[in-house]
Amino acid sequence: MTEIIAIANQKGGVGKTTTTINLAAALQQMRNHVLVCDLDPQGNATVGLGVGAADFTVSACELLLQECEFEQAVVGLAAEGSKYRFDLLPANNDLTAAEIQLTRQSGCETRLRDILQGLPKNRYDYVLLDCPPALNLLNLNALTAADKVLIPMQCEYFAMEGLAALVNTVRQIQDSVNPGLKIEGILRTMYDVRNNLSLQVSRQLAEHFGSQLYRTVVPRNVRLAEAPSFGESILTYDADSRGAIAYLGLAGEFLRRRQSAASTPAPAI
Ligand SMILES: Nc1ncnc2c1ncn2[C@@H]1O[C@H](COP(=O)(O)OP(=O)(O)O)[C@@H](O)[C@H]1O
Ligand SMILES: [Mg+2]
Q1: Partners of residue 191 on adjacent β-strands
Q2: Residue 246 maps to a domain
Q3: Which domain holds residue 158?
Q4: What is the count of structural domains for the chain?
Q5: How many CA atoms lie within 13 A of 84 on its CB side?
Q6: Considering the domain boundaries, does residue 266 fall inside one?
Q7: Closest approach atom of ligand 1 to CA 12
Q8: For ligand 1, is residue 188 a contact (CB within 6 Å)?
Q9: Burial level of 215, CB count in 10 A (0-12/13-18/19+)?
Q10: Which residue has the least CA distance to atom 17 on ligand 1?
Q11: Best CA proximity match to 8, nearest among 168, 177, 216
Q12: Is 267 close to ligand 1, i.e. is its CB under 6 Å away?
């Protein structure tokens, strides 16, 4: 069975793309078949995974507009010799135009869901959707297609307000197009233990979200910021860095939640 996880937060610069790339790489290293869908016209996940303009002719734009097939748009990234898939649906600035055109088409908010549901169930274990920093039609497509939402956030002033807005959006989507949508977890990113505000916000998050808050915390780590400019995940760029250890820890926690969820009912959000 394929599980679809939207990595979402309408705020920019909170670590969505960094989390998508590195969680995907860690899940693949732990023997899972993974697909990353870049749904941000900025194409940061695409570039950060080392996929340039010359590597694809059609992308998420054409796929969402039904101008190409999934097989034409998907790019394979798996390390040579690995039998575990790591695929990318790339995106670039064309996606901005796609969003506008898509608005005029019927079934526009379920387009991504329809595409992903058409894939063979054993092809991917996890599909990670790297969402744009907005609550737009692309984000709506992601939240409609997703089983779960993973929310990366920085523990700073105003973070809780942004989180409340996102949780509201998730509720609206549950009440309309996707009743099964759940919050997978809240991930603290760019965490600085020396900062008092981080500790305060952390405490509030733990009170509000309980076990939905990941125990894994991603520290501020310059190696994580450097890796995308080499088109690499942190696991190949610097496997011993604190960033790599954090994302491997996150993948471990992510997979353990699934093992225990198999024996106990999933918590309501
Ligand atoms: N844990 C981290 N430590 C240091 N820099 C980080 C970390 N996570 C992300 N960054 C950097 O912060 C910026 C924003 O992160 P990004 O993942 O692109 O956020 P988003 O996708 O939410 O806009 C990028 O330059 C990225 O390299
Ligand atoms: Mg991003």
Answers
A1: 219
A2: yes
A3: 3-261
A4: 1
A5: 13
A6: no
A7: 23
A8: no
A9: exposed
A10: 15
A11: 168
A12: no
Q: Ligand 2 centre and the CA of 83: distance in Å? A: 28
**Cβ contact 246:221 at 8 Å:** yes
Distance 13 CA to ligand 1 centre (A): 6
**Phi and psi dihedrals of 73, rounded to 5?**
-90, -25
Which atom of ligand 1 is nearest the CA belonging to 40? 21
Token representation of residue 135: 């609550």
Centre of ligand 2 to C-alpha 81, Å, is 29
CB proximity list for 116: less than 8 A, separation 6 or greater: 2, 4, 127, 145
Summarised one tens digit per residue, pLDDT across range 187-240 is 999 999 888 899 999 999 999 899 999 999 999 999 999 999 999 999 999 999
Quick: pLDDT tens for 110-133.
999 999 999 999 999 999 999 999
Tell how far the Cα of 31 is from the centroid of ligand 2, in angstroms: 25
Q: Domain for residue 268, yes or no? A: no
Residue 47 belongs to domain with CATH number = 3.40.50.300
